[in-house]
Structures are given as C-alpha cells and as structure tokens.
Amino acid sequence: MLRKIKWTDPVVLFLIALPGLLHFLIFKYIPLAGNIIAFQDFNLFQGFLHSKWVGLKHFIYMFNYPEFFMVLRNTLRFGLYSILFGFPAPLLLALLLNEIRMEWFKRTMQTLLYLPHFLSWVIVGGIFVEVLANEGIVNTILGRFGFEPVSFLTEPKYFLGVVIGAGIWKEIGWSMIIYLAAMTSINPNLYEAAMVDGAGRWRRMWSITLPSLMPTIIILFLLRIGHLMDANVEQVLFFLNPLVREVGEVFDTYVYRVGLTGGLYSYTTAIGIFKAVVSVVLVVSLNKLSKKTTGETIY
User: Fold this and answer.
1) Per the CB 3.0–4.6 Å rule, which of 96, 168, 172, 244 could disulfide with 248?
2) Dihedral over alpha carbons 47, 52, 55, 56 (to 10 degrees)
3) What angle do CA 238, 241, 244 make, to 5 degrees?
C-alpha cells in the first residue's frame, strides 16, 4: 500500500501542510476569540465567561484619552518612514548586486548582507548603542572633525532615524533575496536583444529588470501596507527611554507597558482591534486600487 502512495496524492500533500495549518489554527485563529474582552471589564480571575460586559466603553475611552493620539501619531510616522526608506532599500540593493559579474564576490556579499537577519535585537541594539554612544565610533569621528558629541540615543529628533536605520541594516539583506530570486525568472533573451540594440546596463535595468519585477514589488508593497500599524516591539523597546518616549512610544510598546505591565487588558485589546481594522481597510482598499491600475492583487 505504501508503494502505491505518490507524493502528488492529495492526502500526502495535506499531511505535509498539516503542521502549518495547525500552527495557524492554534496560534492565530483560536486566540481571536479572546478579542471579546475588549467589550468587557475583563477580570483575570473571573475569565472572559464571567467578566462584566460593558459594550464600547473601552473604545470610547480610547478615543477620549489624549495619550492615544500621541501613540497613534508616532505609530503612523514610524510605519510611513519604515515604508518610505525601508521598502525600496532591498530593491535597490538587489538591483546593484545583480549587476556584479564576479560570482564569488556576489555570493560573498549576499551572505554578509543577510547575516544580520539571524541576530537577535538584543545583539543588534547593543551594537548600535556602542557605535552611537557619546564615546562611540561615530562621535569619535565627529570629534576629529571638530564637532561636538551628538547624543543619538536620548535626543528625540534622532530617535526615528536610529531605530529605522537599525531595522534596515538588520533586514535589508534578507528582503533582498526575494528580489534576487525574482530576477532569475527574467528571460535572458530580453537582455541579449537590448544589448544588440545598444542598451547599456542602466538602460537594461530600467527597461527590463524593473518592469519584470513590478508584480513582485506590488505584492510585497501591499503586504507591507498591512503592517503599517505594526512595529517590532523588540526593536523599538530596546532603544526606547523616558527622554524619547514622546516620539518613540508606538502601539506595540504602549500595549506592552499599559496592558501587560499595567493590567489594562480590555483597553489594550480594544487598541489591538482598532489596529486590525485599520490594517484590513488599508489592504483591501489598496488591493482594489492595484487591481484597477496594474492588474496585480494579493487575492
């Protein structure tokens, strides 16, 4: 009977997918039921079955609380800046790396660039703290040119740049792999025909490589928009301190501080639902816009 089973049989394919399906079912879909505590005065000892129902109380409190709009502003700013600077960075790096003709150098650079992805934020944050400290290498170089030391980690105007820059440095190599993989599917005959017509490297990149990558770029952009309201809590929390909290507090760190450490579970769950609704609206709207303009969609 085992010999008659083929890898293409539906049962075999289902068994292969079963661990992933169970992961999403147990850790993604079943916990969604816990969102009902946003409509309760949740008591940890009574549970969500016996806690008092309060309707939209926590949503009303959320929009009337002045600190909420500060956190919303910081979250939107962080998300927009991350997309503005972080999204095109791996694409540009992939385009430049694709033009390298020495295979050994190209592979070495790929390995070195995506290596930081495997480092934890504790390590990455420690590196940036040491580099940007008052006695760090950056301020040492500035001092040699006659500039005063800059407090990158405690000045609010530098906070977003430091956090987003650290995130780009950590993830740029890993995101670059997707674009490099998409480039391998481009028909090489297109490049050969362009070379015969006299097109240089920049012209081939602009007229062949970029248009061929456009479906991948649009899909990744739509997926990235879905996380506009999200921030890596470890990334922000490591650099966050009382001096920059006014510009650095985002929803994820706010939920951690107020919800987990402050015990306001119902209030922070309401914030989570608000984030989810905004993300769904953005993805659905931009997906429809993309379908009308480019024909590319994620579903």
Assistant:
1) 244
2) -70
3) 115
Nearest to 164 by CA among 236, 224, 112: 236
**122-146: per-residue pLDDT in tens?**
999 999 999 998 888 999 998 898 8
What pLDDT is attached to residue 299? Answer: 79
Report which DSSP code applies to 147.
P
Q: What pTM value is reported for the model?
A: 0.87
| Distance from C-alpha of 42 to C-alpha of 36, rounded to nearest angstrom | 9
User: By the 8 A CB rule, do 142 and 149 touch?
Assistant: yes
- pLDDT confidence of 104, banded at 50, 70, 90? confident
> Is 178's pLDDT higher than 50?
yes
DSSP 7-33: TTSHHHHHHHHHHHHHHHIIIIIGGGG
Where does residue 31 rank: exposed (0-12), middle (13-18), buried (19+ CB within 10 A)?
exposed
* Three-class secondary structure assignment of 185-218: CCCHHHHHHHHHCCCCHHHHHHHHHHHHHHHHHH
pLDDT of residue 5: 57
